[in-house]
Amino acid sequence: MIETEFFNIFIAGWLCVALITFVLLFFRTAPYGRHMKSDGGPTINSSWGWVFMEVISLLLMILLFVAGNRPGNTVALVFLGMWVFHYSYRSFLFPLKRRGGNNRMPVVILLSAGFFNIINAYINGRYLFYISDLHMERWLLDIRFIAGFFLFGLGFTINVHSDKILVNLRKSKAKGYSIPYGGLYRWVSCPNYLGEIVEWAGWAIATWSLPGATFALWTMANLLPRSRSHHRWYKSLFDDYPEQRRALIPFLF
Q1: Model-level pTM?
Q2: Are residues 134 and 208 in contact, defined by beta-carbon separation less than 8 angstroms?
Q3: Is the pLDDT assigned to residue 173 strictly greater than 70?
């Protein structure tokens, strides 16, 4: 069996795991953040947990690029830059400014997220820097790359702006939670999750690849159920929670 055949079979199996995860998370909310439970097992400082589980993806993608067969290719460099841009923020800046930075995170969440990031970085990096034929510079002028790059940037901007609103909300309160307002919070409870989904949908289009699409689908499998849990949590906690808000998609869900 040649590598590309094995690679595609592996990704098909990984997509099946995403589907199972999607279904399970609609019945059991992942126990971290505001949904943390006392019986979640050993814990770690949540800020350090975020650093550890996100930096894995950053370092592994760089390693795959360096060890790959296209170290000087412009297209490969652009995709590496997009990945590094996102994961540098998620690994170092986001943990420092996120809400509840001194809270605890279950070790099992850290390990499962780290495992996901290893697989995800591997299949995307292996495809882009070893298998892909997207090595001609004209790909950067293709409408698929341009549209995907735009969505990637748009999603990142939405994500960061929404995170900033939450951070400022926490700073303005001595303790506890409050209803966030501003930006896309006007329409949805979790615009930060919406931004991340848009971002990785853009990545999938820009790379025009099965690994990229797999990452986008995994992102939705994780964040669609979690946004639903967040939305229900907000509504149960605040009697005056805005009725027009949806969980993730304005006017729909």
Answers
A1: 0.92
A2: yes
A3: no
